[in-house]
């Protein structure tokens, strides 16, 4: 019927505008490399902030004692403690607690957000068992993983450049987030000193490196997306401080804000961006990360419902922004039942749409696939850009170089199609031979552990 012709037209047009052939991905990768150079050359030289992290050495494994970390990401935050055994001891014991952030705390006041976090941390500290108890008598120290763009002024201080991922509290912007947290800890009467402020990518890099010495890049694919890597200090023209002893500096790219004319953006992406809390910003993040994939999918589905599937019966639920989370999209995408029961159930439960045919549900799965595949392939292209910058996209003669990429985030962890598509695409981009020298490792909760490790290696008491 005419409706089906229209439906097929919408799918075809969407698929076409999301295409990511290898030639295009190589252009994206090259653009990423160019922007990395520009961001390192001067402050404000690029959309990529290429932030200096003041982490010039990663944990060695000799760290010893009890360390805390607090990880504020996007959807949840985690508090954790680890007991490190020192040389050859590794992580002797660890405990964590995950707490979701109430939406009203993401857009309220600075004090309300930090008080909420500090209160949860205080509860967690109060539950510390005896075998964790530090015998050293020194105050507890905290590694603070804070996954938003921060201009650091030292390892344990930094001002918030802007919020992302659905957070929006104007008064925090320009403030030192460690000072904000410290004040909240004091209000809780919790004696704890923040010894390291780290981005989640940097935490993941540190945690990854602790587990595998060949880790040199970390990528987060969660609510948002970002990457960090180890750069040669001499290759950072905008760094005017003393050269670190190690000769290296970890760079927090803030790659979510990357944009390029080579990115395949659709009308749905434009509308999503325009209606977002941060229009014009984080464009790369808005096509590859977990906060947005489900929402892009919803927008296409909305048009499909109106113009093809249901005609005048416009399902009202479908109009609610962000009603379709990426976990739901992922569940539908992975539906292997012959009659696509998972798709049907989700449509019914979440969108109150019950009259779908199998043919329609197949189209819906196809839309998930288009959105996820584009995201995964574009993140592979970004990774290629980093590998190029590091000179690790080729094999040098006589060198047995191994490059390990530590990956973390709920999207990477749980969205199998996305993860596979990313890895296959990277292989395609690098070629079999080079791909053999690259390893992608899931660094489970590396960002929290990493912050505890960086806390340890930057402890003022060691
Ligand atoms: P954050 O990025 O907030 O620190 P996570 O790394 O845990 O937190 O990532 C959470 C995000 O991961 C969610 O916002 C969601 O987009 C994505 N995600 C979680 N579970 C799934 C899933 N089953 N399938 C696809 N994406 C998921
Ligand atoms: Mg996180």
| Alpha carbon gap, first and last residue | 74 Å
Bulk shape: globular
Reported for the largest beta sheet, the result is:
6 strands, mixed
Give the neighbour order of strands across the main sheet.
1-11-10-9-12-13
Mean pLDDT: 93
Please give the radius of gyration in angstroms. Answer: 23 Å
The succession of helices and strands, N to C, reads: HHEEEEHHEEEHEHEEEHHHHHHEHHHEH
| Distinct ligands, ions and cofactors found in the model | adenosine-5'-diphosphate, magnesium ion
Low-pLDDT runs? none
Question: Considering DSSP H and I runs of 4 or more, what fraction of the residues is helical?
Answer: 40-55%
By helix and strand content, what is the structural category?
A: alpha/beta
Strand content: 15-25%
Number of strands: 13
Number of helices in the DSSP assignment: 16
Structure in words:
This protein is of the alpha/beta class. The strands form 3 sheets. Strands 1-11-10-9-12-13 form a 6-stranded mixed beta sheet. α4 packs across α5. The protein is globular and about 75 Å long. The model has no long low-confidence stretch (mean pLDDT 93). The site of adenosine-5'-diphosphate (ADP) has 18 residues, from α9, α10 and α13.
Question: How is the secondary structure organized here?
Answer:
Blueprint lengths: L1 H16 L4 H20 L9 E2 L11 E9 L3 E10 L5 E10 L2 H4 L3 H17 L13 E7 L3 E5 L2 E4 L16 H12 L3 E7 L1 H12 L3 E7 L3 E8 L15 E5 L14 H8 L8 H6 L1 H20 L16 H8 L7 H11 L6 H32 L13 E6 L1 H5 L1 H15 L1 H4 L2 E5 L3 H12 L5
Parallel strand pairs: 2-5, 5-8, 9-12, 12-13
Antiparallel strand pairs: 1-11, 2-3, 3-4, 6-7, 9-10, 10-11
Helix pairs in contact: 1-9, 2-12, 4-5, 6-16, 9-10, 9-12, 10-12, 12-14
The protein binds adenosine-5'-diphosphate and magnesium ion.
